[in-house]
Amino acid sequence: MSEWLIRRVLAMLAGITLVQWETALELVQQAARGLTDKTGAERKQYVIDALKSAFDATKLKGWTLDVLVGLAYGFAQKKGWIK
After folding, report:
1. DSSP characters over 1-66
2. Where exactly are the structural domains of the chain?
3. Model-level pTM?
């Protein structure tokens, strides 16, 4: 799936902006490389907490954050940016 399509779906369904998508991708990569001693759930929580502090936490919550982080992780993994 192309990045453009992912961004469009996120924008339509959850109101995710390009900046939020790019930040999530960057944070997922940082967590995968820098937190190798942590579990996947702990890395995911790191990314979620960082996104909440970087953006308005009232707009990014619940399923929106879960979908954003999950898609960012899957996309980065498919592109070979993380293992």
Report:
1. --HHHHHHHHHHHH---HHHHHHHHHHHHHHHHH-TTS-HHHHHHHHHHHHHHHS-TTTS-THHHH
2. 3-79
3. 0.82
Sign of the Cα torsion 11, 82, 26, 41 reads positive
Closest CA to 18 of 77, 62, 68: 68
In whole angstroms, what separates CA 31 from the centre of its chain? 11
DSSP state at residue 69: H
pLDDT of 42-68, one tens digit each? 999 999 999 998 887 667 778 888 889
Query: What SS3 class is residue 68?
Result: helix
